[in-house]
């Protein structure tokens, strides 16, 4: 299982693609702007980045150049631009592969696996685990340990914790969690987040009244941070 970062602003493309790639065994995080994608790529160290060129705040080619200045993470450009000159420019700028929209999740999955095989001795071989205090979240094995002890989570609980661990110390809204973890629109379903957070707290040995890792920010969302860390 690879850890993928999808940088795509179109929700109608992003949501089903996240779902399909997760069904194929990948751990998938997503960003809707270039700068958010750059931050996530540097903070979370994904195995591979899938990059749309038509982003709202910055052209994808410029983001690719910025990424290449600081990281060797493999990048697949996924865009509607099919001009041969554009494809050559993007590959010359450092992309590892290029796929033209519309494409299927199966095609993207195959290209991702091929790119990762080619670069298995590089950045993709790095340990992708996220560590927050005594918590270690391994997206490849989909395993969580707390102070060295395995924590048994359901697939949804794992996805929720993994998403929060990718943003330690940040308040993550219920809207974002519903969109990125559940892939459903916000509104009326926020109790789903509350219930899963309650189950997750119980398995981490804490409660909403006595939090250690999961801190509710009333009216906003939830923040994951190591015990003793300053908010």
From TrEMBL:
Keywords, in A-Z order: DNA-binding, Phosphoprotein, Transcription, Transcription regulation, Two-component regulatory system
BP GO terms, sorted: regulation of DNA-templated transcription
One Pfam family cited in the UniProt record for this chain: Response_reg
Domain called Response regulatory: residue spans: 3-116
InterPro entries: CheY-like_superfamily, OmpR/PhoB-type_DNA-bd, Sig_transdc_resp-reg_C-effctor, Sig_transdc_resp-reg_receiver, WalR-like, WH-like_DNA-bd_sf
GO MF terms held by the record: phosphorelay response regulator activity; transcription cis-regulatory region binding
DNA-binding positions: 127-226
Domain OmpR/PhoB-type: 127-226
Protein name per its UniProtKB record: DNA-binding response regulator
Organism whose genome encodes this protein: Micromonospora acroterricola
């Amino acid at each position: 299982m690879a850890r993928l970062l999808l940088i795509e602003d179109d929700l109608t493309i992003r949501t089903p693609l996240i779902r399909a790639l997760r069904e194929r065994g990948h751990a998938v995080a997503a960003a809707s702007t270039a700068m958010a994608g750059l931050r996530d790529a540097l903070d979370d160290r994904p195995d591979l980045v899938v990059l749309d060129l038509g982003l709202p705040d910055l052209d994808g080619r410029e983001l690719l150049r910025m990424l290449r200045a600081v990281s060797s993470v493999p990048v697949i450009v996924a865009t509607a631009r099919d001009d041969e000159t554009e494809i050559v420019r993007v590959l010359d700028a450092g992309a590892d592969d290029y796929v033209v929209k519309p494409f299927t999740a199966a095609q993207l999955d195959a290209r991702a696996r091929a790119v990762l095989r080619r670069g298995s001795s590089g950045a993709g071989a790095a340990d992708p685990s996220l560590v927050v205090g005594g918590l270690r979240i391994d997206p490849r094995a989909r395993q969580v340990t707390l102070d060295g002890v395995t924590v048994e989570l359901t697939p949804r609980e794992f996805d929720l914790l993994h998403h929060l661990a990718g943003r330690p110390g940040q308040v993550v809204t219920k809207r974002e969690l519903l969109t990125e973890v559940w892939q459903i629109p916000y509104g009326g379903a926020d109790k789903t987040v509350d219930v899963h957070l309650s189950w997750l707290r119980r398995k981490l040995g804490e409660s909403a009244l006595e939090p250690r890792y999961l801190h509710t920010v009333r009216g906003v969302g939830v923040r994951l941070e190591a015990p003793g860390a300053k908010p």
